[in-house]
Design goal:
This protein is of the alpha/beta class and 316 residues long. The chain has helices at residues 4-13, 49-59, 76-88, 102-110, 120-129, 146-162, 177-189, 205-212, 235-241, 253-267, 273-283, 303-310; strands at residues 23-26, 34-39, 69-72, 92-97, 114-118, 138-139, 168-172, 194-200, 247-251, 291-296. Strand 4, helix 4 and strand 5 form a beta-alpha-beta unit.
Length: 316
């Protein structure tokens, strides 16, 4: 669990970079619960990642930043790190998997980040080793860095301030850092609120591991839900997240695409695949009844994929 004091400190640290995002009601008569959307897609970089990246880099010492910063990211953390590095006046190098969408790569480069594309297995190795051969700089881990997790936890503070009697919070799960931060804040302040993770059917290791009671590798296939899903749960994150979470949920690609479409049509919100996972699970009834907050983690989706979804299809 991330200490509540560190999450509160993070809120002060990231002031002026991350914005306090709105919590809005999704009015769907046929929904099995009262769905609320935490719109992190409205952050300056279109993703919650600006919170953790800014907290980590603003709290780093000049000595830590002397050679710049490095991260491994499918896109959103890369933008957060590039944003915060530019603010700090240091270079940022981003290791991205070769399936990362061009929309996110273009955004990284606009923010001044240097992109290195590698196969998914090599990218995951960088995540595990907290380094990339031949690249110097402070490694800001997109998941396991506790300063990043504390920054993510500021979302939990805002949710409870805006909806104090929330029954459940549903969080898209990629590496687990968003879950660790939000769940730490929620469980510290309102332990009776349930916390659920949700992953795409194309790679749901946390759900499988939670059901088995121990880490389980799964088969992973890249999909349009590029910000969530993986072949396994990082050991450190399993230790943190498994103690905070009440259940691991899974959403199909069709359900996720339908949720992207619904958010666009009903509340005029553009969500990327991972950003729509929580709403997909809640709409399917998997998060239970009562007041359910769905974290819309980001809105950085390729225009072509969005057009396919709005046309009633699921991207291949």
């Amino acid at each position: 669990m991330i200490p509540l004091d560190e999450i509160r400190r993070a809120r002060e640290t990231i002031a002026g970079a991350a914005v306090r995002t709105p919590l809005v009601r999704l009015h769907v008569a046929e929904a099995p619960c009262e769905i609320w959307l935490k719109l992190e897609s409205l952050q300056p970089i279109g993703s919650f990642k600006i919170r953790g990246a800014t907290n980590a880099i603003r709290q780093a010492t000049p000595e830590e930043l002397a050679d710049g910063v490095v991260t491994a990211s499918a896109g959103n953390m890369a933008q957060g790190v590039s944003w915060a590095a530019r603010e700090a006046g240091v270079p940022a190098t981003i290791i991205v998997p070769d399936h990362a969408p061009q929309t996110k790569i273009d955004a990284i480069e606009r923010l001044g980040g240097r992109v290195i594309k590698v196969p998914h297995a090599r990218w995951w190795q960088t995540m595990e080793e907290h380094r990339h051969e031949g690249v110097d700089g402070l490694f800001v881990h997109p998941v396991e860095d506790e300063r990043v997790m504390a920054g993510n936890g500021t979302i939990g503070l805002e949710v409870l301030e805006d909806l104090p009697d929330v029954d459940a919070v549903v969080i898209p799960y990629g590496g687990g850092g968003l879950t660790a931060g939000i769940a730490s804040a929620v469980k510290a302040l309102r332990p009776e609120t349930k916390v659920f993770t949700v992953e795409p059917e194309t790679g749901a290791p946390f759900a499988a591991s939670f059901a088995a009671g121990s880490p389980q590798p799964v088969e992973y296939t890249a999909s349009f839900v590029d910000g969530a899903g993986a072949p396994l749960v990082l050991p450190k994150m399993w230790g943190i997240d498994s103690s905070l979470v009440d259940g691991g949920l899974v959403a199909s690609l069709d359900e996720t695409a339908a949720a992207v479409r619904l958010l666009a049509e009903r509340v005029r919100v553009i969500a990327e695949g991972a950003g729509a996972l929580a709403a997909a699970a809640a709409l399917a009834g998997r998060a239970g009844e009562g007041k359910v907050v769905c974290i819309v983690s980001g809105g950085n989706i390729d225009a072509a994929r969005l057009a396919t979804i709005l046309g009633g299809e699921t991207p291949s």
